[in-house]
Structure formats: C-alpha cells, structure tokens
UniProtKB/TrEMBL annotation:
It comes from the Bacteria. InterPro entries: AB_hydrolase_1 (IPR000073), AB_hydrolase_fold (IPR029058), Hydrolase_4 (IPR022742), MAG_DAG_Lipase (IPR051044). Residues 327-362 are annotated as: Disordered. This is Lysophospholipase. Residues 69-307 form the Serine aminopeptidase S33 domain. Coiled coil: none annotated. Gene3D superfamilies: alpha/beta hydrolase (3.40.50.1820).
Amino acid sequence: MAPPSRAGSPRARIALLAVLLLAAGCSATFQPRGPAMRAPDLTAERIVTPDGVALPMRAWLPEPDGPPLRAVVLALHGFNDYSNAFEGTGSFFAARGIATYAYDQRGFGAHERPGIWPTADTLIADLHTAASLVRRRHPGLPLYLLGESMGGAVILSALAGPPPPGTEPLEPAGTILSAPAVWDRDSLTALQRAALWISYRTVPWLRLTAPRELKIRPSDNIEMLRGLSRDPLVIKGTRVDAVEGLVRLMSRAAAAVPELPAPALVLYGLNEQVIPRAPIEKALAALPRHVDSAVYEEGYHMLMRDLQGETVLRDMVSWIGNPSAPLPSGADRRPFTRMAGSGTAGSGTAGSGAARTEMAGP
C-alpha cells in the first residue's frame, strides 16, 4: 500500500489542483441587470428594459365596443411559468373593463436565457420599469399589481424597499397577491437547508425535477396541468442555483409581509400543496391589520386557474372596484384553519404526470 501523501508531494499538489479546478467549475450562473444603455420602451409584444433586454409581453384589453376601461393590472407569473399564466385572467378582466399586462420575467418563458436565475434585485428593477411604462400607456387610470406565487414574492419585496436607481416608485392603486411565495429559509427543515447548501456549492448547474412519488397537486384543473406539461415555455427542470435564488427571494418576501401597504388583498386556498402550512400561517399572522385576506375552501395553489377560478376572479374584480366591500364569495370571512396537504422542498414540479410544472414550489 502506498504511504500517505505529504502536503508538498507531487501527488498532494495534483490532488489540491484537482479540487481547485473542480471548485472553479462549480460556480453559480446568474443573469443580473446590466448597466443602463437606453430608454425603456413598451411595444405591442415586449418590454425593453434600460439594459437593452427584451421581455416578451402579453396584453388583454377591452374590446372597442365593450365596457369602458376603468383600471389597469400588471401581472407577474410564478416560478418556471410565464405570462401565458394570465390568459384566462386577462380575458375575464378585459370583459369587465380592466386591462391586463403580463410579461415573461427575466429567465422565464420566451426570454432568451430561460432557466438562468436573474437575481431578486433584477426582477424588482424589471417590475419598476414595467409599471412605469404601463402607467404611461394609461395615464389617469389606477394601476394594480397582481402577483401569483413567485410573482407575489417579487411584488412584496419591491414594495418594501426603495425604488432601484433610475426607476420610479411603484405606488400602485392596490395589490393582489395570489398564493404569494413566502417559504423562507427558516421554514425549511435542517435536512432541506443542508441539501441546498451542499448542492449549491458543488453542482449549481444540476437540473432537478421532483419525484413522481410526491404527488403534489398545484391545481384541481387537470386539463390545464396537462397543457402546462406539454408547453415548451414552461420550465420542467430547475437548476440548483435557481432554487437557491428563489429561496433568497422568498425569504426577502417573507420579511416584507408586515410592510405590505394598503389596499392589498392576499389569497390562499385550503388545499394548498405547494407552499407548506407553517410559512403561510406565519405570513397571514404578520399581515398588517389594514390588509385584506381571503381563503378559498376549494382552492389550490393556482387559484386563478383552478376549477373554481372564476369565483376567485369575480372576487378580484369586485375588490378592484371597491376594496372596502365584502367579497362576493365570502372568502374574506373564512379563516385559514386546515389544509389538505403541504409541500416539501423541491416539490413544485411535483405531482404525477401532468402536474410537473414548477420546481421548488412557487
């Protein structure tokens, strides 16, 4: 048997060099916002940011012979999803005089580098840019922010801090957060934290998909989930460094919950299986008194796309019209007292077959 290598021996130096090379090849990859190089712009199909990045955009506007335009909504999608998530919502709103704009957030959908995490600060800066452009497109109309899951985390984080350099304050007329992602690092188990810590520092490039055995259902709308599973713009496998970025964003959003300005409406479903119960209860308990919350007995994570999604949308339209009035469904008078299941780390793509739509939950 060969004797142990000494620190200065050729074998030891080779081993040390191999470790250093391995470490150098395991750095995380992000796509943060670059320096401003042009004025931002809003076209029919995209938002162009100050650093020259084009974010694909969709808009749903009332028909010329339809109801008069009375409000504008800027919507942010969830993790691994994209702007098409608001197809049904935008059409529903447009028929009731509300315009909706939604864009593929940097790193998602038809963006040129899908799957590469953009950093929370970049997502927040893009939101400020988009809100300013949409507000200029519709001067004089109230602008509402709508965030689903990760989109809700971006909005929470943005509202809690000062506007990024070169941007304007958000100051929305109101905010609606549908199952906002507030699953912070402290809410992960010790095993989950350790697994993420190790994998982020060794294999940040590794793409993960959730085991079928988890069988987590983000919605009871199976046909919709099957459509997402076939959609090439929905990310099916998530890089470890993107999961780490998401956890950082969710932790930031969870800390921002007590600072959520009114008027605001926060929605969750009793059948939520993507975000665990503990962080949801923690978030609801931390909401300021002047912020409204609604709990849907039949609701899952994708509330607006669930089979009872129209009930949720009707509540949203009613709230936009009069935030102080009770919701038509009565969901604002229902406590968050039980759940059908709870998520686990890395469970967002989870579920069987068609439900494999999101990674790490939100």
